[in-house]
C-alpha cells in the first residue's frame, strides 16, 4: 500500500486552465493547499503530454504533493511521476501494477459497489485508492456514469477498505456533505481550474475539508 | 540492433478494415505475405486498444510476423508486443528505449534528412528502423508532412545506415519505383485494409517487392 493524502485532489483540465496554463494553475493550487495533482489530458500528442507532465513534475518538486498521470502509464514512467490513475476503460489495474512495479501509486475509478468489489478481488496491493463518482453530472467528463449523489457514494465507500476520494462536479459548498459519506477527500476539476483565483479556491476547499475548528 | 523484415509492412486502420474487422484483415494479410504488422488506432480507449492488440498477438502467434504498436509503449508492454513505432509527435525514441529495454524493436518516423540525422545522434541502438514518408499525400494520416515522392525518400535514405521502409499512399504499381530509392520495404494502410481481398492484395505487394523472377 502506497500512502497518499487524498484530502484535496486536483485533476487538471487543459482547456479550463485556459490562458493561465496548466503549470501556473497547478502552482497556485499547491500554494492554496491541494494534496495531490492528477494530469488528465486526452487531446495532446504523447510528446506534448510528456512535456506537460515534465513541467508539472518540476512545479511539484520539493512540495511533497504527488503527481499522478491519468490513463497513461507510459507517460508516468517516462517522467518519473508518482502514480497512475486508471478508469474502467483504461488498462486494467492488475496489468498496470505488473508494468509499473510496487512503488507507484495506482488509483482506480469506480461508480458502483460491484466495481469496488471487483477491485477487492484483485491481488493485494494492485490498487492504492479508489476514485468514486460522479457525485453530480459534469461537463468535464461527458461519458461519465450517472450521478451518484452522496448516498450513492456512501454505498460504494461501504464496500471497500481502500482509501477513497469522491469526484464529479464537487464545489466548496458540497465538501462537508461529501465527506459525510466516509470518503477521505474530494477531487475537483472545474472548482480549481475554472476559478478566477485557483490558489484561493484551493485554500477554501482545503479549509472546508479540514472542517470547523 | 533488433532485426526486422520490413519488406511488406502492414499498418492497420480500424475504420478502413470496416465490418471485416482488424483481426481478420491481419490474418488474411499474413496469409498473403506481409512481413510486419503495426497496430495503429488513436480513437480507441486504452482498454479497447489492449484488447485489440491482444487479439492481433494471438493472430500472429507462430507466424513469425512481428507485432508493432504505434505510439503506445504501455500497450506494447501490456500485451507483449514485439515493438513500438513512434512518430515525431510521440515519445522520443531514447526515452522509449530506456523504458522498454533492449529487446523490443523501435521504429521511428522521419520525413526529412534532418530528422534522419537526428536519429544518428541518438545513443547506438535507440532506433531499429526508420519509416520514411509520406511517399504521397494520404487521407489515413491527415496531419502528415508534405509528400516526398521517390526523390525525397531517396534523399532521406541516403542519410541513414538504419533499415528503412517507405510509407504514404503506396500502391502495388508504385512498389518497384519506391524500392529504387533504396528503402528495404513498403508500408501500406489502404492498399491492404481497404482492399476487397486483403490476402490477394498482400500477395501482390509481396510479389512486387520480390521483383521479377
From TrEMBL, chains A, B:
Q: Which UniProt keywords apply?
A: Magnesium, Metal-binding, Thiamine biosynthesis, Transferase
Pathway where this protein functions: Cofactor biosynthesis; thiamine diphosphate biosynthesis; thiamine phosphate from 4-amino-2-methyl-5-diphosphomethylpyrimidine and 4-methyl-5-(2-phosphoethyl)-thiazole: step 1/1
> Which positions carry the signal peptide feature in this UniProt record?
none
Coiled coil region boundaries: none
Q: Which cofactor does it need?
A: Mg(2+)
Q: Which GO terms describe its molecular function?
A: magnesium ion binding; thiamine-phosphate diphosphorylase activity
The record lists Mg(2+) as bound by: 71, 90
Q: Could you tell me what this protein is called?
A: Thiamine-phosphate synthase
Q: Which reaction does it catalyse?
A: 4-methyl-5-(2-phosphooxyethyl)-thiazole + 4-amino-2-methyl-5-(diphosphooxymethyl)pyrimidine + H(+) = thiamine phosphate + diphosphate; 2-[(2R,5Z)-2-carboxy-4-methylthiazol-5(2H)-ylidene]ethyl phosphate + 4-amino-2-methyl-5-(diphosphooxymethyl)pyrimidine + 2 H(+) = thiamine phosphate + CO2 + diphosphate; 2-(2-carboxy-4-methylthiazol-5-yl)ethyl phosphate + 4-amino-2-methyl-5-(diphosphooxymethyl)pyrimidine + 2 H(+) = thiamine phosphate + CO2 + diphosphate
Pfam families, sorted: TMP-TENI
This protein's GO CC annotations:
cytoplasm
By sequence similarity, the record places it as follows: Belongs to the thiamine-phosphate synthase family.
> SUPFAM superfamilies from the xrefs?
Thiamin phosphate synthase
* EC numbers for this chain: 2.5.1.3
Q: What does this protein do?
A: Condenses 4-methyl-5-(beta-hydroxyethyl)thiazole monophosphate (THZ-P) and 2-methyl-4-amino-5-hydroxymethyl pyrimidine pyrophosphate (HMP-PP) to form thiamine monophosphate (TMP).
Q: Which residues of the sequence carry a binding annotation for 2-[(2R,5Z)-2-carboxy-4-methylthiazol-5(2H)-ylidene]ethyl phosphate? A: 138-140, 169, 189-190
Query: Which GO terms are recorded in the biological process aspect for this UniProt protein?
Result: thiamine biosynthetic process; thiamine diphosphate biosynthetic process
The entry's free-text remark on the cofactor is: Binds 1 Mg(2+) ion per subunit.
Binding, 4-amino-2-methyl-5-(diphosphooxymethyl)pyrimidine:
70, 109, 141
Under PANTHER family, the record lists: THIAMINE-PHOSPHATE PYROPHOSPHORYLASE, THIAMINE-PHOSPHATE SYNTHASE
Q: Which gene encodes it?
A: thiE
Specify the superkingdom: Bacteria
Q: Where is the Thiamine phosphate synthase/TenI domain?
A: 8-192
Amino acid at each position: 500500500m502506497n500512502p497518499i493524502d487524498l484530502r484535496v485532489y486536483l485533476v487538471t483540465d487543459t482547456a479550463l486552465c485556459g490562458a493561465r496554463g496548466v503549470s501556473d494553475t497547478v502552482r497556485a493550487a499547491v500554494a492554496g493547499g491541494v494534496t495531490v495533482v492528477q494530469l488528465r489530458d486526452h487531446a495532446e500528442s504523447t510528446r506534448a503530454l510528456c512535456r506537460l507532465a515534465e513541467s508539472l513534475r518540476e512545479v511539484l518538486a520539493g512540495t511533497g504533493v504527488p503527481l499522478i498521470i491519468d490513463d497513461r502509464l507510459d507517460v508516468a514512467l517516462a517522467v518519473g511521476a508518482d502514480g497512475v490513475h486508471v478508469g474502467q476503460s483504461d488498462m486494467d489495474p492488475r496489468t498496470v501494477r505488473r508494468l509499473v512495479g510496487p512503488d507507484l501509486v495506482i488509483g482506480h475509478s469506480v461508480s458502483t459497489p460491484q466495481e469496488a468489489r471487483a477491485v477487492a478481488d484483485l491481488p493485494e496491493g494492485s490498487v492504492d485508492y479508489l476514485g468514486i463518482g460522479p457525485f453530480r453530472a459534469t461537463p468535464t467528463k461527458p461519458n461519465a456514469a450517472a450521478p451518484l449523489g452522496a448516498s450513492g457514494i456512501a454505498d460504494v465507500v461501504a464496500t471497500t477498505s481502500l482509501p477513497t476520494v469522491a469526484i464529479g462536479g464537487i464545489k466548496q459548498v458540497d465538501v462537508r456533505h461529501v465527506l459525510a459519506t466516509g470518503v477521505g477527500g474530494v477531487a475537483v476539476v472545474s472548482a480549481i481550474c475554472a476559478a478566477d483565483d485557483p490558489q484561493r479556491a484551493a485554500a477554501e476547499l482545503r479549509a472546508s475539508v479540514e472542517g470547523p475548528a
